[in-house]
Amino acid sequence: MATVMEFEDHKKQEIKYSTCYMCACRCGIKVTLEDNKVRFIQGNRNHPINQGVLCAKGSAGIMKQYSPAKLRNPLRRKPGAERGSGEFEEISWDEAIQILTERLAHIRATDPNKLAYFTGRDQMQALTGLWAQQFGTLNWSAHGGFCSVNMATAGLYMLGHAFWEFGDPDWDRTKYFMLWGVAEDHSSNPMKIGLEKLKRNGGKFVGINPARTGYQAIADEWVPIRPGTDGMFALSMVHVLLTNEQFDWDFLLRYTNAPFLVVQTPGQKGDGLLWRDGEGHPLVWDLEQEAFVNGMQPGVKPALFGEYQTPDGRPVRTIMSILADRYLDERYSPVNASKITGIPAETIERLALEMAHVAFQESIEIAVEWTDWAGRKHDRFIGRPVSMHAMRGISAHSNGLQAARAIHLLQILLGTIDCPGGFRAKAPYPKPVPPPNKPAQHSAPNTPLSSLPLGFPTAPEDLVIDEEGRPKRIDKAYSWEAPIANHGLMHMVITNAVNKDPYGIDTLIFFMANMSWNSTMNTANVQEMLKAKDENGEYKIPFLVVVDAFHSEMVNFGDLILPDTTYLERYDSISLLDRPISEPDAICDSIRHPILKPDRNVRPWQDVMVEIAGKLKFPAFTKEDGTPRFSSYKDFIANFERAPGIGFLAGWRGKDGQSHLRGEPNPNQWEHYIENQGFFQYHLPKSMRFYRFANKEYLELAQRIGFNPTADPIIIELYSETFQRFRLAGMGLYDGPCPKDPVDRERLATYFDPLPDYYEPLEQQRIDKKEYPFYAVNQRPMMMYHSWDSQNAWLRQIIAQNYLYMNRKRAEQMGIADKSWVWVESHNGKIRVQVKLIEGCQEDTVWTWNAIGKQSGAWGLKPDAAEATRGFLMNHLISELLPPKQGERRLTNSDPITGQAAWYDLMVKITPAAPGEEGTWPTFPTMKPLPGSAPAPDVLRYHTHEPVNLKS
Amino acid sequence: MHAALAVIFLTLFSGGGFGLMALIAIINDLHIDGGLSPSQTLIGVLLSLVFVTIGMLSSTAHLANPKNAWRAFTRWRTSWLAREGVFAVSFYPFAIGYLVWVFLTGAPDARIGLTLASIAGLLGLITIFCQGMIYAVLRTIRQWNTPLVPANFYAMGLATGATLLAAIRVITGGNASIFIGLAIALIAAVALLKGIYYFWISRPAGPTIHTATGFNRSTVRLLDQGHTFGTFLTEEFGHILPQEKARSIKVLMYLLAVVVPIIALGVSLGAQSVPAVIVAAVSIVVGLGLERWLFFVEAQHVVNLYHGRQRC
Amino acid sequence: MRLGLVIDLDTCVGCHACAVACKEWNTSGTTAPLTDYNPYGAKPSGVWFNRIRHYEIGEYPYNKTVNFPMSCMHCENAECVTVCPTGASHKRPEDGIVLVDQDKCMGCNYCSWACPYGARELDRVSGTMKKCTLCIDRIYDMEIPEEERQPACVLTCPAHARMFGDFDDPESPVSRAVRERGGYQLLPELNYDPTNHYLPPRVHAPIPTEGLKKKAAIKVKEWVNRVIER
């Protein structure tokens, strides 16, 4: 009996292309609409990021769009109601904007730093940063301080590109891939696509992770490592490579600072800095000329190893000599590293040699003519097909910056940087090491900052501190406590503002950041701080503005709530000025545009920002006649120019839309993007695809289109002179600002090692590990990633409760049964959770999926939702401050170099709960429903049309 | 397996009803112990119809979409469930015909009546077989995939029918010793067959998590079932009865389905005790109801292997 | 034709993309909607055609995590069809796809009992059995672009761990993959002859390292420089 084939009526449907925003991956989506409802979201086959595929989150976008947690109207805390009580009243947009504008106008006219504006995962830092700069406040950053600043900084201070979003393994060619501690990542679908390619091509995939879940599941070899010891593991592999002379001589000599000479005058000013000629050029020893020569000259033949004496009698050594001396030390031998990392010594040695074999015995060549930085032609690109990726597992430790540098060092020695099969850069990277922009240092009333609040310090002079050496930023970024805090320290803002340390603020704006719940350390305490009042009965944080699209735990604490749109309802630009979607072979950016009409009284936050900027007459947002320059965010994106011809979107510029990458604003630019399925892609010519740090054609292009200020080659830094300057400041040997507090001096002298090194994470140095024997870390489930999707009717069926995962044998030895409830205690607090015993967990480690736990009543869930009654947050156990130490001010629990929140440094003890003790603890009061919100349905039967049944 | 009350009732009551009808036909046909009186026949056939109807109605209560129940007969060529429906429904005209015949003629042993009764009895027996085969054909459930299942169904249906018949005989004042003997013999057969069945299912023999996943060389453990809470699959198939609990329920089942009825029937054998036969009839129905429940909850569907069970 | 899927256990990362794409397509598909119960409450549940389980093979530290997606196998010996009393469940002779006619199903659950793979789920609101249709309403719909005429799960799988094709054609990619990678069927002893096959994890050959080891220890000061032009 043949089926009668009848299909749904496509005439009623419309197809639109946009960009996903269910996580930070930013895949292209093809959305089928039916009566202003979403029929189907699928991957866009033509899109450079996802090439047609889409992950679980992307497909579940429908359920996000129809979430009962959507905010519906601007809200104001009811007069007389306590902050955090959840008592709100609806107000109009006019009123909301008026309240905010008046407040901001006053702050801007008096002390702009009284506004602190911090954003969550927004991917629009180019706009929010510009806005803050125009406002004149130093107190702006996104959430990178607790996310990935260690990864970004390590790369940008060493390679010019980085893990995170600035580089990718060469998936098509790599033969050996080492993944360091990633469960799910910004590079969500590309990683999955890439891993399959690697395996199809017969490559080996090695996973370094205390837990074998996520991508590690399909690793050909799993290396269960103790959390926070990755730096030692990497450096031990460096030891093995050096011991067996397995490193890329050509690469080191041509493209890195390995042959540069370093002054060796311990205890004196200038020790450890590069020896330079009168023009500031670094000097090398030329083997043929047998003389010191400018290392930046083409054609010199420098010594990689060697000790020399300068004419004025100072000893100098090549960086490579210093480096080899350091890592050949027994401290880094596999046997010693094994004691720290828990990885068998023979595994460390074998993995290092496996990579050496693949890099040097299985190297690849691509026959393409290209021109190097000095204009010399080459007929091929040589590839070392070993690649790596690392992310939060490395990043979120207080030794994460140095650990990430250690991983990069390994890559550099193997010569796998931006080469075929290696770790490739993505436009606008590589940039100079580090990028040339410096953080703004001064703020004045009604005046924009001279530069963006965030930048890249290279010396103590670049710190944002006052004459007394005190921090000028509320988060103490760019102070002695966190000198290279390039993403700010969002995790310290509430604590510092409440303690008025360094000063009190007036208004705090949080955009898309759940700082009273899963995006903060020490959650319960932070909720108390948000409600804290001073002796006059005023809130210590006087005015709190929360901008979000959904009813998060943070919304509950707002004084003013501004409801945002969803990603299907607004314009967005994923800009080359920010964190674009580029691929190694193509310069790309992309957009979102409204494909659904909002069904409630919400506005895109970007539009509101542009409107307020006009009202406050920010120079960049105001015409000469004093009227607003831009009518909307859409208008702003099309017409704003950062430099002549350079705007937020790089495609279809010029009046006629014919100029790509650089050109005059084009009034029809948005239409071009929409026509072209929401993205722009400029394929780099084959000659520009590798060795871009030294590729003349590419460097000239990068200069022409504004990525880099010059076309000078980018020198890869194995040894960081920048770090040495800070270290000298710590030792009091720097010609410039030096810290006064011995605590700062000691930290700088210890941790600002110009060579990557391993040290025990700071919190762990202060914790009795006999009392707290377990490392406790978080990971992200692939089907949720940031786990904001507890509200998602489909995704939460997959995971609505997190467990504490433990090694089965270890737990059984402790008398802990599968699925039993246990107490987990740290120096900061305790929680009760349910355990799950698994094989795929390093013995000394426990871990969980982060942010599954929710406060009862949040996110449109019913008060008894499992997320609130059985799920949990590890955040309660983590302090934003290091355990106190006598004679020391309280220090942030962060990387001492970058200020990256060290939320993976946690140590805990585990004890079985008493019989009958069940359910998560602590619990929090149920949040009240917001005015106008409808109760969540008990049965959901989402569909966009009556089914066309196929009859038998 | 989830033990749905509706499905328990279906085989419990309709099985008893069909067994009763079959025994009425045999006894009246062969004139065993003088056959049944017209009133005993009427009561017996009526009771059989009531039992069958309770079973059939409760089976429709099990349907999630009963408006399509009428379609259940269409696939009788392949489906034992359809066949059950066909035979169960075709049972009715003959059983009712016999009922009407006996009511009108008062002659339960006349040829036309006996023909109707025999056909009804035969259809009833075929239906019991179909009911057994509904379960026995399922390769997915090792505990059911055996000829012991239809054999058990026969034993239980006939034992129930015989107990009911003995009770009718005693209540209506006839000499019931042969009927009681028959009932005791059939109950003993139930006990024996169930014993064989339990022995048979106690030996591990079904598929394993290794064959379910294809990983044959190492331990295989469930890490995550991919959904935090229950699904249709866990609710329908996920029932687990701890061994100790199963053992004590089995003792109770034997007590109610076998020991109590045999003792009560034995008491009745001497004393013609009405209360005793009522106890026997109620006890066997309750006891076999427990047996039905055990039949489900002890059945391990292979899908449980995918939820972490090591063997079915 | 014998249409079905190949699942690559070597590359499946367990992301549930297939399951959610399936849910998304089919909640407005031919057996729509796929009801969700208590979607925002204590114990959310619902009807899905494709579920991903996760197993651990072996013991620490030699354990491997295997992600295991399962949906209807479109068996050659589809007992679910044999046992169906109403004729709602049927296997299409032209391509082997097993379907449930929602207009005929009476919701007796019997087919789900007969299925070893947990492929069938009752929708408690419609009262009918629902299951993977192999996206029959995609693969034959000529208004959908040709390259997208695939099941939603295959279309979306980011790790390309799912392949769709004709197993009757020995040269189809699915047949070749099964042949070359040792594809296998689940629960073969039940003899359902499932069409879907699973590819086992690949085994990686050891990488030679012995030849790279230096015999004598290196001293930095004695390292002989190589002349390389910068």
Kindly report the CATH topology of the domain at 157-428 and 716-720 in chain A: Dimethylsulfoxide Reductase, domain 2
Which oligomeric form is depicted?
heterotrimer
Any idea of the CATH topology of chain B?
Formate dehydrogenase/DMSO reductase fold
Radius of gyration of chain B: 21 Å
From the N-terminal CA to the C-terminal CA of chain B, the straight-line distance is 12 Å
pLDDT averaged residue by residue of chain A:
96
Question: What is the straight-line distance between the termini of chain A?
Answer: 7 Å
| Number of DSSP-assigned strands of chain B | 1
Task: Give the CATH level 1 class of the domain at 157-428 and 716-720 in chain A.
Answer: Alpha Beta
Shape field of chain B: globular
CATH architecture of the domain at 157-428 and 716-720 in chain A: 3-Layer(aba) Sandwich
Q: How many individual helices of chain A?
A: 25
Shape of chain A: globular
> CATH superfamily of chain B, called what?
Formate dehydrogenase/DMSO reductase domain
The biggest sheet of chain B amounts to: none
> Biggest sheet of chain A, strands in spatial order?
5-4-25-24-23-6-7
Explain what the structure shows.
The complex is a heterotrimer of chains A (952), B (312) and C (230). Chain A is an alpha/beta fold. In chain A, helix 4 (125-135) packs parallel to helix 16 and helix 5 packs across helix 13. Chain A has 25 helices and 35 strands. Chain B has one domain: Formate dehydrogenase/DMSO reductase domain (Formate dehydrogenase/DMSO reductase fold, Up-down Bundle). In chain B, helix 2 (38-61) packs antiparallel against helix 3 and helix 5 (148-171) runs antiparallel to helix 10 (274-297). Chain B is globular. Chain C is α+β, with helices and mostly antiparallel strands and 230 residues long. Chain C is 17% helix and 20% strand. Chain C contains six helices and eleven strands. Chain C has helices at 17-26, 79-83, 110-114, 136-139, 152-156, 173-181, and strands spanning 3-8, 36-37, 45-46, 51-57, 64-70, 89-91, 98-100, 120-123, 128-131, 162-166, 197-199. A three-stranded mixed sheet of chain C has the order 10-1-11, with helices on one face. A two-stranded antiparallel sheet of chain C has the order 2-3. In chain C, strands 4-5 form a two-stranded antiparallel ribbon. Classes of the chains: A alpha/beta (952), B mainly alpha (312), C alpha+beta (230). The interface between A and C is large, with 125 and 94 residues. Strand 35 (939-940) of chain A pairs antiparallel with strand 2 (36-37) of chain C, so a sheet runs across the interface.
